[in-house]
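TICKET: design request
STATUS: open
ATTACHED STRUCTURE:
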């Protein structure tokens, strides 16, 4: 097989990063390089032509996941211009978002991996920046957004962990009620 062009190499790299951003949000950082590359439609060996390590890919995938939020490419976007605060909260704390971790919030999906040291300082820095930006987006005149964000993310994580049980929807409903009662 011949060499790929520089343009094709860039496209392949971007496809791997986007695939990793989805798979890491859906399955966590334990996804193997072989699984990632297969999902991206590339060979395992191609990984090492593009990335120094899986940690380097995690760093880029974390940034990619947050970029999707900032630019509205995710389906559960929470942004001041997207909808009313109640509509934003309802979309974030929905069964659809709970069930769609691959395209959902990177804060909820990647927090444990980042806390456990997955990725390097670049991943932690990008994650921290993403949390701060998300908090600004959900802030109100009375709240800097950190308590709202904490409630939303915590509720989403708990509802995912209890998915398939009655308490899962109860968690989402309770958080929605708490957050919209102050609006």
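STATUS: resolved
RESOLUTION: sequence designed for all positions
ATTACHED SEQUENCE:
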């Amino acid at each position: 097989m011949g060499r790929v062009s520089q343009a094709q190499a860039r496209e392949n790299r971007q496809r791997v990063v986007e695939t990793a951003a989805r798979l890491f949000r859906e399955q966590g950082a334990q996804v193997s390089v072989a699984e990632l590359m297969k999902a991206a439609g590339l060979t395992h060996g191609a990984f090492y032509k593009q990335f120094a390590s899986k940690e380097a890919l995690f760093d880029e995938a974390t940034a990619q996941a947050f970029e999707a939020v900032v630019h509205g490419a995710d389906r559960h976007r929470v942004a001041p211009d997207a909808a009313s605060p109640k509509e934003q909260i309802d979309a974030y704390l929905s069964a659809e978002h709970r069930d769609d971790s691959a395209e959902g919030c990177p804060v909820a999906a990647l927090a444990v991996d980042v806390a456990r040291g997955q990725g390097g300082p670049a991943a932690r820095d990008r994650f921290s920046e993403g949390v701060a930006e998300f908090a600004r987006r959900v802030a109100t005149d009375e709240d800097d957004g950190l308590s709202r964000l904490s409630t939303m993310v915590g509720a989403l994580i708990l509802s995912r962990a209890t998915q398939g049980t009655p308490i899962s929807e109860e968690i989402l409903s309770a958080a929605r009620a708490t957050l919209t009662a102050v609006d």
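CLOSING REMARK: The chain has a mean pLDDT of 89. The chain has ten helices and no strands.
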